[in-house]
Amino acid sequence: MEDQGNDNSALGHNSEGPVGYYHSKKDRIFVRAVQGEYNLTEELKTLRSMPRVRKASELNFVDGPQAYSRHYVEPKDGISQLFHIHLEEYGPGGKSQKHGHVNEAAFYILDGDGYEIHDDIQYDWHAGDIAIVHNNCVHQHFNASDSKPARALVLKTKPMFVFMNMLFQKTVEARETTPAPGGENFVVREAEVDFNHPEEDY
Predict the structure, then answer these.
(1) pLDDT tens by residue, 85-94
(2) pLDDT at position 198, please?
(3) Among the listed residues 103, 105, 94, the one whose alpha carbon sits nearest the alpha carbon of residue 187
(4) What CA–CA distance (Å, rounded) separates 85 from 64?
(5) Closest CA to 123 of 109, 136, 103
(6) What is the pTM (predicted TM-score) of this model?
(7) Which tops the pLDDT comparison, 137 or 17?
(8) What span, in angstroms and rounded, lies between the C-alpha atoms of 32 and 88?
(9) Rounded-to-integer distance, Cα 88 and Cα 133, Å
(10) Which residues lie across from 103 on neighbouring strands?
(11) Rounded to a whole number, what is the distance in angstroms from the first to the last CA of the chain?
(12) Contact 104, 135 (CB under 8 A)
């Protein structure tokens, strides 16, 4: 699973960043247990009782101050065993952690301009593009603007890869714990009202 690092909880941080950062969690659920009678009737009842719409207003962004995440679907929620879907927001000049994992991921760029570095190769992206992270590459995501945020919807089938015993993932460089130059006063867009549409319309 993910690199465990050394926990220094008494100091209020660990090797991955401050305690409470999503990407520093040591107890994440990657694959949810499914158990019960052979007909799994109770499991089906549970699945069918789950919400069909996840309200953004009920989910907060976590992490920061350069890269923020809002996790809509992951196995621990009981909604889906297949997907992990989250929204990423990069503050001005922000970047993600540098890491690698077996599963693929697709980043649909909602707004902003930025780039990826995959195995030391740079790939630029703009709003409307899809950035694909291939299996087993070491990668990092960057906002190219030092004045505007960037946002991406991330879809990945990590739970199924883990279920199939494809377990490797590792953080190479942790997320930054201080804002990037230009992003010192940035506040993540928790209650965005324009739904990623430009003010001047299309």
Answers:
(1) 999 999 999 9
(2) 66
(3) 94
(4) 18
(5) 109
(6) 0.77
(7) 137
(8) 23
(9) 15
(10) none
(11) 44
(12) yes
- Residue showing tokens 């960043």: 17
SS (H, E, C) the chain: CCCCCCEEHHHCEECCEECCCHHHCCCCCCCCCCCCCCCCHHHHHHHHHCCCCCCHHHCCCEECCCEEEEEEECHHHCCCCCCEEEEEEECCCCECCEEEECCCEEEEEEECEEEEEECCEEEEEECCCEEEECCCCEEEEEECCCCCCEEEEEEECHHHHHHCCCCCEEEEECCCCCCCCCCCCCCCCCCCCCCCCCCCCC
Residue 133: partners with Cβ closer than 8 Å, 6 or more residues away = 104, 105, 106, 107, 116, 118, 139
Position with higher pLDDT, 2 vs 138: 138
d(CA 181, CA 100): 26
State the CB neighbour count (10 A cutoff) for residue 92: 22
35-44, 66-75, 90-99, 193-202: segment of lowest average pLDDT: 193-202
Q: What are the structural domains of the chain?
A: 7-173 (2.60.120.10)
In 3D space, the residue among 107, 47, 37 whose CA is nearest the CA of residue 77 turns out to be 47
Residue 150: closest CA among 69, 98, 86, 94:
94
Two structure tokens written together for 118:
């995959």
The larger pLDDT score, comparing residue 127 to residue 161, is at 127
**CB 82 within 8 Å of CB 159:** yes
